[in-house]
Structure formats: structure tokens, C-alpha cells
Amino acid sequence: MTTKFVIVGAGPAGMRAAEQLVSAGHRPVVIDEAHRFGGQIYRQPPYGVQRERSDLYGFEADRASAALNRFASLLPQIDYRPNTLVWQVAPQTLQLVRDGRDETLPFNALILATGATDRVLPFPGWTLPGVVTLGAAQVALKYQACLVGPRVVFAGTGPLLYLVAWQYASHGGQVMAVLDTAPTGAKLRAVPKMLARPTVAAKGAYFVMRLRLAGVPIYSGVRLLGAEGREHVTALRWQKADGTQRTTNCDAVGVGHGLRSETQLADLAGCRFDYHSVDQAWLPTRDASGRSTVRGVYLAGDGAAILGADAAELSGARAALAALEDFTIATSTALASSLEAESRRHARFRAGLETAFALPANWAADAPDDLIVCRCEEITAGELRECVKTTGAREMNRLKALTRIGMGRCQGRMCAPAASRLLADAAGCDLKDVGRLRSQAPVKPLPIRLMREAATAAPVPFEERDD
Amino acid sequence: MIEKLSADVTIVGGGIVGSSAALFLRRFGLSVVLLERGLCGAAASGVNYGGVRVQGRTLSQLPLALRARSIWSRLSSYIGIDGEYVQSGHLKIARSESDMANLEAYAAQMREHGLSLQLVSGAAFRAAHPMFGARAVGGSFCAEDGHANPRLVSPAFARAAQAAGARVIEQCTVSELGHTGNTFVVGDGRSVEVKSSWLLNCAGAWALDVAQRFGDAAPLTRIHPGMAVTEPVPRFMDVNVGVEGGGIYGRQTARGNCVMGGARGAAKGSLYAVPTAEAMGELCRRMADLFPALADVHVIRFWSGVEGSLPDHQPVIGPSPNVPELIHAFGFCGAGFQTGPAVGEALAELVYHGRCDIELAPFALQRFAEHDSLVTS
């Protein structure tokens, strides 16, 4: 019997994993939610829309081209399934939905390269139309070739802040301000670790320089006070590091505080999780090769830990080698070692990034009681604090049961980072100790009509006649 | 260091039964220590469907269910919150003439014992309940039934017991269970040891772990009911709905989400359960059958839980045949949420008065005596 290799995600990690498997003579299945391969970072415009890659990807154009072209050349040798959502994982089986049809896909080796979304730390007014994540602002530009507004403020922290601001400034957007919530000195303190990848650090400095030359005001140590507007955002109120308050008029706000890994599939697959202090999150446990704690399940890319596109490619290739080692005759150990060594450099750089773009230290304590934390269920910071006070809740699943936080359409994918910080602050414990929300299928909401096709219409057995 | 405690009563298991027993025991003035492996009200008591119904119960459970109804009607006076309890009524649907005949026969039997049910069928039924698919031919309505949010209600019973003076110890896995003379010694071998005159076994699906230490046995199995919740939709039903023949039941919360149950999940280790893809598909088919208008609505989440079940679909409630002052209450077969508080009250009465007004003989462990001898022989 041939081994069935399945890769979830066609970003940098998934594409490289596929390449490794094809070069070993296998025909992997590559499942991707997106319409076209490339992931978030190498996101391609819709079919039929021609855009220069230098325009889309800037500095990363060569890298993007290489990755996209290599994967395009592999297409005849893989079972590529775009527009496909994996909504459930059971042992050796995935449940998929594509074109409105439910399907079961068995696997032997599963490489999860599920990527990341923005890490959202809410501030007053963040649910107003026109306030979007940095990632969403970038998707609008890369995929739809449009801006989220003519006059945009970019706020929050993380490398994406300066990158997206520069992309907007160089594509006709009027960037009203770049407001970094990390303190001014943080970037300097991070320099030693960031020298692990000097060219990447230099690119960041370049964006800042270009933004300054373009006359974009840039501030550090900022506190976000609120997005203003009735039907749509019209201004952002914020506080400078010296305490003075400012209001910047705008038509849109792009905001983000780094990224968070998409870990639901690893959770449904039964992987153990550990707390990562760099990512400040519970993440699926993996060894240097990308093996999870479940046999046959491998973890790669930002879905396993936020390390960026280049590290994702390395970990995708390494995870594929691990799967080959486990299910076929042994492969190149020299390549595996060099991939692991290279990955360690990225991990050191990543620690530097976390220093340079530190999250607001007092975010939870500063959050006003009427701040909406969960926009699906409209739950406020005050409700969470009240629950902790009256019930003694100390754990995320308990907080979920009692307040509905994380019970809405996104199942906590958006609100969990904020809710867990508020819980830890209110309960007076470490972020680690409040745990993480258990994932439940479906990974994203699905219509009843679609899932019932899997049913058999057998009569209800007597012992199951609950009512 | 092991904390040594003594109390009149030790309760193992902080579900709705154990927690309400603790509350009622405190109302009698007895000292109570409740030991819970995880968090109180977080297993079957907290993740169940949330049905609060008398309709459909056997005659043997009617006294308990009616006693429970009076507790539910004053719920906030016991637990300090309304728990989203609404007396919406419970409508049991018939999908064939023979199902309707069953509902009529049940209503006739219950009427003699004080449970009033209204039967509706034909055009009148369809006019009153247009949301059901064409297969529904009629139904039986119990106006005093309703539904509630188990995630809120069950933990609140434990908090109320604690506020009333019970010592509630969570994250405590009982490993030591002994009986010397007339004293029980129960502890986790790590941080706590409780000596008490009475022991209540309210450990749900794991109750045999306690019972067997004292030579008691029952053919207890574990079931994993499948549940789903949809995105919020405009209000289209206010009643709690079940069907004759079972397999699907549903209610709509004040927020608009529809909570539905049916089909069965699978165990994930010994403490958790997960819905399987087959069960999720089956549940969706049954949902769309019963409520055609929901077919395009999205399911946000499926889940399951671990519940104790017994072959005759009746719980065990009553004293151990082997050890005096040990009382069992487990195996509610997926239908213990409504009766739970009344079971807790009955347990407290058994301890305090030595008897209780409710006839518990149908739930005696001795009914499985044959099984018992099989296990011990």
C-alpha cells in the first residue's frame, strides 16, 4: 500500500513540504482554503488579474516568484485542492468541504501548515466599520488591488505594521500616521538578537526610512484610546509616549499586534500543547523535526509557532523529511540537519522581534469595562472581570462556559488572546496558567444542509432515543 | 502536606446532583465536604442539552420530576442566578399516526398522576407550529416544562453550596476510599483527607470507581450524546422540542442560537468525548428534517460529553446494600439535568431524616442483584 501524504495549507511551509515529498517520488494531497496557492504572504491576485510580482511582494518578489513558480511546476505531480476547508480531524481521517460538498479523506501522514492570523488586542471602537486588521489591509491590497480607505492610520505593533504602511504609501494610499504601541527603546534592545538575520532587520529599517521620507508621522510608545465615528471610523484618538493626547482623522485604521497561530486542526488531531513564552500562547508541541506528539501528524510554518515565511519554508521541508523517515525508507539526514540548524537562527531572530515589538504591558489592566472583547457574542471586558470576581473562574474553558466568550462564530480565534490576558489580569495569575480554549469542530461555521450529506439516514437505535 | 478534614458528609462528584445535595445538606445544618476531580458542573451536568422537562419521563420518575419542577420554579432563590431558565413549555412531536397514538396513551396515563398534557394534531397543529417539516403530524405539549443553560446552572449549585458553608474542593482526584468502623476516609493521597459518617457517591459516569471499592456493582456504561449549536437566527420557536422515538431535540436561546442534540459521539480517553463526523452528519440530517428552515443555517460548534447509562434507562438512587451510610446517585442516562436538584434534596433527606418522601425503590441498586453476583462470583 502506498503511503497517503496530506498537507493542509499551501503557503510557504505547505508548498515546500509538497516539493520535498514530490522529489522523493510521492504524490501528496495539498489542501488549501484559498482560491490560489501562496498563503498569506505570497497571496496571488485572482485568476485573470495580471500584476507584477515586484509590485505585489516588494523585496520578497524574487523569493515569492521562486516559491510560486516551483509549486506551479509541481502541480501535475500533486493532488492540489484549492477552495477546500478541513473542518474536522479524526485519527487517519480528515473531513473536507469543497464546492458545497462534504468529503472524507484518509491519510497516513498529515503535515499541518495552517498559518496564522492577526493577534487582536481590542481598543475602544475597534468594531467600527473601517477598522481592520493589518492582515486584512494587506489582503485588500494584494488580492483585490484596493485600499481599505484613502486616508489610513496604521497602529499596533509588529514587523507587519511598517511593511503594510509602506505598501499603502507606495500604492497611492495616504498614510496619516504609523502608531507603534511598543516603547521607543525596545527596537534598540532587540538589536543583538535581530543580528541573527541582519538583512531582514535592515529591511525593517528601510521601511521606516522610506515612510519618514514620504512625510508619514511615526510614533512609538503610543497608547490607542479609541476609534471615533458613528457609522464608520472617522478618526483615531491616541496618546503619545509623553502623555499628550492626539486625534488623527482618517477613513480607515489598520491595526494588529503580531500574529497568532491557527492551531485548531492540531488540537482536533489530539496533539499535546505547550506554553511558548516568546509567542505568549499555548502551541502544539513539536520536536526539531516538526513531529507532533501524535504519530503521523507533523507541524510546520506559522501554524506551529510564529517564525515568518523563510522559517516556514525550512520547517515545511523538514516536516516532510520527518514524514518520509517515518513512513518510507530513510532520506537525507544531512539535509535534515542543515534545515534544523538554519531554523535555530530564525528562532533567535524571532525572540528579538518579540523584544522590538513588545505587546502593551498594561493592555489588560487598562482595558475599560465597556470594551467589547468578543465581537461575535458582544462580551465586554467588564463582564469577564465580573465573572472572575463572582465565580472565581481561573481557566479559559470555564470563562467560556460562564460568559460565552469564544462560543461565537469564530470560536475564540479572534478573542482568545485578549480574553486570556484579561482573565490572567483579573485572576492575578500568569497568562500560562489560564490555559487555552479546547477546539471543537467545525473549524469554521458550516451550513447544516452541507454536513447532512454525510449521514446515512439509519433509524435511531432504541438505546439512543434520548429526548 | 495532607490537610485533614472531618465532616458529617463527604460527597464525591460536583455535578448537579452532588452540588445540590451539598446545598440541601447545609440547609439541614450538616457539615459537608465535596470533592470534584475537575471543576464543578463542567462534565455531563454542564455540557448537556439543557432540557428541563417532566414530559416523557416514566411514572417512576414522576414524583422526583415534579419535586424538581418546584425547585426550578424558584431557581434563583437557591443559586442566585436565573440560569437562563425559561418555562417555555415542552412540545413532543409525533411523526406518524402510531407515534401520535403513543403520545395519547402516555398523556392518558400521566393525567391520572397529576401531569397535564395538551394533545394537538392535524390542521390545528400545523397552524400552531409551522416550523416543523411535513412529517410532523401532531404533538403533546407540557406547558410547565422548559429549558435552561446548564453551563450556568450546574456550577452555580456548587457555588451556592459553598456560600452556604460547604467545603468545595475542585481539581481533587479521589484515590483513597476507605471505611473503618463507622467512618469513611476519603482523599486524593496528596493534599486532602476527609473523615465523615456519610458518603455520597455522585460521581456520574465514573461512579463505579467509587461503588466497587465498597463491593457494589451496576451494569453502568458510558454514553456520549452529540450536541450542536447554530449561529443566532431570528426567533422562530420558544418551546423545547423533542420527538416521539427520540434521536433529535432542540431549543432556541434568547440570543437566537439553536441548541440541538441527537446521535452519539465517541470517547476521547476516559474523561472526554468528541463528536464523530458520522454523528455530526447524522445530527445535521435530523435537524434539517425536523426544522426545514434551518437547512441553510450554520452550525458553529459540535460537542459531546460523558454520561453514565444503565440498561433499564433508570438511574441508581439509594443506599448501598453492602455498606451503611453510603448512598449512590448515578447513571441518569442523559436525563438527569431536570431531576438533579430534586435528587440532591432527596439525598440530603435520606441523610438527615433517614428516609425521604419520594419513592426511591424503583432506583435501588439491588435491582441489578443478578449483575452484582456475576461481578463478585
Question: Short summary of the structure?
Answer:
Chain A has 15 helices and 23 strands.
Describe the model.
- The complex is a heterodimer of chains A (467) and B (377).
- With 467 residues, chain A is an alpha/beta fold.
- Chain A folds into three domains: 5-117 and 260-330, 3-Layer(bba) Sandwich (FAD/NAD(P)-binding domain); 120-257, FAD/NAD(P)-binding domain, CATH 3.50.50; 363-434, Arc Repressor Mutant, subunit A (Orthogonal Bundle).
- Helices cover 35% and strands 21% of the residues of chain A.
- Chain A is built from 15 helices and 23 strands.
- In chain A, strands 3-2-1-7-20 form a five-stranded parallel β-sheet, covered by helices on one side. In chain A, strands 9-16-10-11-12 form a five-stranded parallel β-sheet. Chain A has a three-stranded antiparallel β-sheet with strand order 4-5-6.
- Chain A is globular, with a radius of gyration of 22 Å.
- The relative contact order of chain A is 0.13.
- The model of chain A has no long low-confidence stretch (mean pLDDT 93).
- Chain B is α+β, with helices and mostly antiparallel strands and 377 residues long.
- Chain B has three domains: 3-50 and 151-219 and 311-376, 3-Layer(bba) Sandwich (FAD/NAD(P)-binding domain), CATH 3.50.50.60; 90-143, no CATH class; 225-304, D-Amino Acid Oxidase, subunit A, domain 2 (D-Amino Acid Oxidase, Chain A, domain 2, 2-Layer Sandwich).
- Chain B contains eleven helices and 22 strands.
- Chain B has helices at residues 16-27, 44-47, 62-73, 75-79, 97-111, 122-128, 150-163, 207-211, 277-290, 340-353, 369-376, and strands at 3-12, 32-35, 51-52, 90-94, 118-121, 138-142, 146-147, 167-169, 176-180, 183-187, 192-201, 221-223, 225-230, 240-243, 249-252, 258-264, 266-268, 272-274, 298-304, 307-309, 316-319, 326-330.
- In chain B, the strands form six sheets. In chain B, strands 1, 2, 8, 9, 10, 11, 21 and 22 form an eight-stranded mixed β-sheet that branches.
- In chain B, helix 3 (62-73) packs across helix 10.
- The longest helix of chain B has 15 residues, at 97-111.
- Chain B is globular and about 65 Å long.
- The model of chain B is unreliable at 373-377 (pLDDT under 50).
- At the A-B interface, helix 13, strand 23 and helix 15 of A face helix 7, strand 13, strand 16, helix 9 and strand 19 of B.
- Strand 23 (446-447) of chain A pairs antiparallel with strand 19 (298-304) of chain B, so a sheet runs across the interface.
